[in-house]
Amino acid sequence: MAVESGICDFGWPAPDFALKGTDGKLWRLADVRGPRGTLVMFICNHCPYVKSAIDRIVRDARELEGLGIRSVAIMPNDTDAYPEDDFDHMVAFSAAHQLPFPYLIDPTQQIARAYDAKCTPDFFGFDGELRLQYRGRIDVGGKNVVPGARRDLFEAMKLVAQTGSGPREQLPSLGCSVKWRG
């Protein structure tokens, strides 16, 4: 069943984290913070919405890096119930898709709760001061690639990089629900 992300609470401060990445390092928010903004994404390995969008996510993250926006992805799901999302599978997923950003595991789900993550993918776009400016979709595609579709996430974060503010009109992301423990 598809779930929508929440709405953008403009100015909301990004919660800090300290999570293990697929590279074996411990990553904090300060380590991934970009000079013009930071994109925090909640994704997983098994979700068909993420699988469909991962190439677009990688493309956008690479292009945003050139605008001073850095990215990080966090896997929030219960890996006991969804073993396809466990750490070893995350390492393989990261390598297979050549993720240009840290891919972190949230084993206690505390960070996903702090961000109020609803679905995978769920995108949180912060300005250079780590204040929320975008919480919306990557594009209209959902589980499908729509040729020529407006790149909502990229355009929003480009605006953040240029002006410090996100667009007032935002459409929620659509994806699989976060798989919460018990």
UniProtKB/TrEMBL annotation:
InterPro entries, per database record: AhpC/TSA (IPR000866), PRX-like1 (IPR047262), Thioredoxin-like_sf (IPR036249), Thioredoxin_domain (IPR013766)
Record Pfam families: AhpC-TSA (PF00578)
PROSITE patterns, alphabetized: THIOREDOXIN_2
Record domain Thioredoxin: where: 8-165
Protein name, per record: Thioredoxin family protein
Organism field: Lacibacterium aquatile
Classification of source organism: Bacteria, Pseudomonadati, Pseudomonadota, Alphaproteobacteria, Rhodospirillales
